[in-house]
Amino acid sequence: MTPTGTVLVVGATGTTGSRTAAQILAAGHRVRAASRRGTPLPGAEAVRFDWYDPATHDAALTGTDRVYLVPPVGDPDPAAVMLPFLERARTLGVRRAVLLSSSAVPEGGPAVGRVHQALPSLFDEWAVLRPSWFMQNFTGAHLHATTIRETGAFATATGDGRVAYVDADDIAAVAARALTDDDAPNRDLVLTGPEALTHDDIATILTEVTGRPVTHHRLTVAEIRHRLTEQAGVPPEFAALLADMDHAIAIGAESRTTDTVHRLTGRPPRDFRTAAERETAPAPPDE
């Protein structure tokens, strides 16, 4: 990889943004870390950024030539704020954009699918990362992880459907290559882990790794939608989208694996057990 200009990482304190920024910095490239609070990131230039505050956009973009885009969380129509930002980015000299989307959302589909569709017309160098669901959903701040810690259980409407969960570290590794390699992918990239698992399988692995019982509760799509809106405070339109994604899993939409992580990074993706062992291990004692 040859040195790039400055890479703007939107969502630099988030699950993939923080990991992507760290990997780009480790490879010797400059990073501008954008977050709502402008939180400092070792080795990076911190800048305050809010999708819904255009006054923060130019300061984040000026002097950057590549950008990693994490859509605003929970917004059922992110294109409304993202497309004007991307047009401004092009005007200010950004030449490569890498968008975080989802394996469940095709080009031109709902939510971020509209941004995916527009990206090739805005930039000559681009990529859309379409990862499967994150392994960190069971260990981080996601609703699944929270309910597992509180009750030893989590719920889906996925039935016996399988998902090839992917490690956020692997997503970040692909993002870093897509942002800094001499040639941009100029395509969408579906990222998965090495094996497709049911959520009963996930519960079994978490039970074995943590030594504490973890149960998967099977709910209907309507029950999941209600749970998301009433218990988790998710806006109804976005809750309906998430519940429909569970239904898609139940009928087999995510029962696939790809070799994209291996092709882009030169190493195979991590399996769920390995990631769970890493992220649930107790922290070492302070020296």
UniProtKB/TrEMBL annotation:
Pfam families xref list: NAD_binding_10 (PF13460)
Limits of the NAD(P)-binding domain: 11-115
Region annotated Disordered, chain positions: 259-287
Residue stretches of biased makeup (Basic and acidic residues): 259-280
UniProt cross-references to InterPro entries, sorted A to Z: Ergot_Alk_Oxidoreductase, NAD(P)-bd_dom, NAD(P)-bd_dom_sf
Top-rank taxon: Bacteria
PANTHER family: PRESTALK A DIFFERENTIATION PROTEIN A, PTHR43162
Protein name: NAD(P)H-binding protein
